[in-house]
Design goal:
Blueprint (H helix, E strand, L loop, with lengths): L4 E5 L7 H17 L3 E5 L14 E4 L10 H9 L8 H8 L1 H10 L7 E4 L6 H7 L4 E5 L9 E3 L2 H12 L5 E5 L3 E9 L3 E8 L7 H5 L5 E3 L6 H17 L5 E9 L4 E7 L9 H8 L4 H10 L3
Helix pairs in contact: 1-10, 2-3
Length: about 300
């Protein structure tokens, strides 16, 4: 496919707008350096039907209306090729409840969970099914918005209220105590394993985008077989949902070396705090080469 003119989509109206703008600006400059004719487009103030005038779209929209299959559905309708996963896979990946159903069906391990509503906020019953403490989070959200660690019944009410701001479907999830890892994927190939170490109770918004104390590193204490197992789990999780192009898979490892899938991100961040560019750099790709690879994968 010959691509010369690219619409770079960033901004949008989700809670992750600021992060999307930062990702978009970084990718925009890379595309310019790669000699593409590129336009920086914010969907909230653009007639999206004008996208038919471009050879392809590079999606840097994070969160709702960008990662959840909606913009992908529109681009499919307009017959404009775009980066990343198709609309159905994007929707499944964004919705953690649906992702878990898919993974359970494929015998891929994910933390136990319950769907919460105002009638079943019984802390004692929840901990008998899950763990003490446990996580409460919106089913469809990114950048750890609305995610809270619940340690008592008062926490539960506050956490449910917070998560409900982002999505009407709220999940209570088993809290896995252990180490957090991520595998970035480019063209159905792993870019390697990175460990996330934070001083926060978990990898929340502050740890992701604000704190300079969060450490992303290659795990040096794990043998090659364990690392390969992580990469295979990540690829299986990615492919089972139908994802393609590029993305990132996050999971936990407990003290017994059991792995638990947390989520798939189909439009990873491309900021200076983002994991995907770091993983690509560790794999020998600079930022412009990474962006070019993503463009080359457009179908």
């Amino acid at each position: 496919m010959l691509i010369k003119k690219i619409a770079l989509l960033s901004g949008g109206d989700s809670e992750e707008r600021d992060i999307s703008i930062k990702s978009g600006l970084a990718v925009y400059q890379a595309l310019k350096n790669l000699n593409y004719e590129v336009s920086l487009i914010d969907p909230i103030n653009t007639d999206l039907c004008s996208l038919v005038n471009y050879d392809a779209a590079f999606i840097c929209l994070h969160g709702k209306n960008g990662e959840d299959g909606k913009i992908q559905s529109l681009l499919e309708l307009l017959k404009v090729p775009f980066t990343g996963s198709a609309s159905t896979a994007s929707m499944l990946a964004m919705n953690k409840y649906y992702s878990k159903l898919v993974w359970n069906n494929h015998a891929l391990i994910t933390p136990k969970f319950l769907i919460l509503n105002k009638t079943n906020l019984d802390y004692k019953k929840i901990i008998t099914h899950l763990s003490d403490p446990f996580i409460v989070k919106p089913s469809s959200s990114g950048s750890s918005f609305g995610i809270n660690l619940v340690k008592n019944k008062d926490d539960l009410i506050l956490a449910f209220t917070d998560a409900s701001k982002y999505d009407p479907t709220v999940i209570a999830e088993e809290f896995i105590e252990g180490r957090e890892f991520t595998v970035s994927i480019l063209g159905n190939k792993s870019l390697g394993v990175l460990e996330i170490t934070t001083k926060n109770e978990f990898y929340d918004y502050n740890a992701k985008y604000v704190s300079n104390e969060t450490i992303f590193s290659k795990p040096t204490d794990l043998n090659p077989e364990v690392l390969e197992k992580m990469e295979n789990i990540a690829l299986s999780a990615f492919i089972s949902i139908g994802c393609s192009g590029w993305g990132r898979v996050d999971f936990m490892m407990d003290k017994k070396f059991n792995f638990y899938l947390i989520e798939v991100n189909t439009v990873p961040g491309m900021t200076d705090h983002s994991l995907f560019p770091l993983a690509a750099r560790n794999a020998g790709l600079n930022f412009e080469q990474t962006v070019q690879h993503i463009v080359d994968l457009i179908e």
